[in-house]
Amino acid sequence: MPEFSEQTLLKRFAENDSQATEIIYKDHFNMIRHLIQNNNGDHEDAKDIFQEAMIVLYENARTDSFILNCQLKTYLYSICRRLWLKRLQQAGRMTVLTEGIEETTQVDDAMDHHQRLSAEFALMEKAMNNLGEPCKSLLEAYYLEKKGMDEIADKFGYTNADNAKNQKYKCMIRLKKIFFAHYNHNGK
Amino acid sequence: MEDIKLQETIEKFLDGKMSPDEIAWFEDLRNATPEIDQMVVEHKLFSEKINDYANHIDLKQRLHTLHTSLTEKGEIEDIHLSSRKAKVIYLWNRYKRVTAIAASIACITALFIYGLVSFFAPVANMNDLQQLSKKIDQVQLNQQMQGARIREFDSKIPKGYTITAGGTAFLIDAKGYLITNAHVMKGSGAVVVDNKGNEFKAKILAVDVEKDLALLKINDDDFKKFNSLPYSISKSNIDLGTEIFTLGYPKDEIVYNMGYLSARNGFNGDTTNFQISLNANPGNSGGPVFNNKGEIVGIISTRQAQAEGVVFAVKAKNIFEMLKGLKENDSSFPNIKMPVNTTLKNETRVNQIKKVEDYVFLVKSYNSN
């Protein structure tokens, strides 16, 4: 397996490259597992926290302004630390983390960005759920599973792709309405 | 149908699937129709959002799959798949801190108790014995007193009635008119007990739930009217930091407490109340709040549950307002003469208490079962 600079690795991760994702995951998961398990968490918690940190990394790596100005290790560690502290606080435990001598870095902006996106995703999910069937499944097939109109027509039992497409547009217009009603309402 | 056609065109445009001619035509259309222009902008934003969302869901799925496959390949450790021994080590690592703390606490406690026992054991025995004998006397005394009380209750509280609430009340007219809290008057009738344990029947004349005030009249032949009251009731607001004291019945015996005015308004800015800092307990409700001159400035009503020493009292001017309202509604309502002068101005606190304690009563309201 060729060696990549962390910058390239990140770029490829942001472009959904599965090899890059695997390298980052494999190289850092155990470090985070130690952090979590030494601080009142179990393996499941470690998995949750690390995966959320990967999502934070991904979201930020995709922005144009993103520059990694420390080791990837430090960055991921700092994010996990923040996420885990937050989780502990929510559980009402006022604990101080017992840590090794890991270095941490400022991740406020990254966390803010993540929180904003999370709110938007939650909004989209809610809007989707409010659509009802068959709209929800139809749009999920199209947008999430990236199925073609022919396949969708076949799966949902429309006589031809054009009918399915019309139905998809109808559903999308509704989804847009629901989404923007809340999106605009929530400011921005 | 129109909407759908339009939607399709916008999508085609945004996806860059139009021919140059079509693009030129569509740009013209956008320029000419602001609504369509707006729709294009909105759709562009929406496409971004839903693509981000799709990406997010996809990433989550990929990470999950990746975790499983890496675990299977043994590239990352997974405690669920490791041997039993590893689990024991894991549990030990996880709980060793807790275990250590628990062990040290147990150790310290054991040493401490051992120390206490060896320190006090030989000397304390004699004292304990003496105290015990004294206690027996006291228990007997208490029993006698309780016996006396029970006989009194038999006479004053009608049979078949039970006490629903208790608090404190004070005279506002020497003829036997008392003020207490409305929330103390949960029953249909009331008895009041003076600081010497004498019990009198009382009638509830009026209850003002909003002001949390209740007016009682002692209706008992055993009650001997006083000539006058030593304190007065103040209409004016009092200043922040004013020292105050109160007498009340958090237990069967009268209890003194002092504090100061800590806020001009009550809970959530309630202007009919003020806030005082003092230790009040259940039973203090309805108790008079005096200032240094011996003027009643308020009536203790509630305390904040979550905070220590935050007590609210109804401002005394509410008594005047309540009586005024009663008189306006019913002209036959008895005239109540509230004391206007205090004779306690230059007295020491101990003398002040001596002079007012006779006018502060324990009040119990009762209801039929």
List the topology elements.
The complex is a heterodimer of chains A (188) and B (369).
Chain A: H1 6-14, H2 18-37, H3 43-61, H4 72-90, H5 108-131, H6 135-144, H7 149-156, H8 161-185
Helix pairs in contact in A: 1-2, 2-3, 2-4, 3-4, 3-5, 5-8, 6-8, 7-8
Chain B: H1 2-14, H2 20-32, H3 34-73, H4 84-156, E1 161-173, E2 177-180, E3 189-193, E4 199-208, E5 213-218, E6 232-233, E7 243-248, E8 255-263, E9 273-277, E10 288-291, E11 295-303, E12 310-315, H5 317-329, H6 349-356, E13 360-368
Parallel strand pairs in B: 6-11
Antiparallel strand pairs in B: 1-2, 1-13, 2-5, 3-4, 3-13, 4-5, 7-8, 7-10, 8-9, 9-12, 10-11, 11-12
Helix pairs in contact in B: 2-3
Mean pLDDT of chain A: 83
Biggest β-sheet of chain A, characterized? Answer: none
Number of domains of chain B: 2
Major sheet: arrangement of strands of chain B: 1-2-5-4-3-13
Q: What is the CATH T-level topology of the largest domain in chain B?
A: Thrombin, subunit H
What is the number of helical segments of chain B per DSSP (H or I, 4+ residues)? 6
Question: What count of domains describes the coordinates of chain A?
Answer: 2
**Most extensive protein-chain contact, per-chain counts:** A-B, 38 and 35 residues
Question: In angstroms, what is the radius of gyration of chain B?
Answer: 38 Å
Q: Name the helicity range of chain A.
A: over 70%
Q: Under the CATH scheme, which architecture of the largest domain in chain B would be assigned?
A: Beta Barrel
Described by strand count, sense and barrel closure, the largest sheet of chain B is: 6 strands, antiparallel, barrel
In terms of structural class, how would the helical and strand content of chain B be classed?
alpha+beta
- Tell me the CATH topology of the largest domain in chain A: Rna Polymerase Sigma Factor, Chain: A
Poorly predicted runs of chain A are none
**Strand residue content of chain A:** under 5%
Number of strands of chain A: 0
Strand content of chain B: 15-25%
Overall outline of chain A: elongated
CATH class (first level) name of the largest domain in chain B? Mainly Beta
Q: Mean of residue pLDDT of chain B?
A: 81
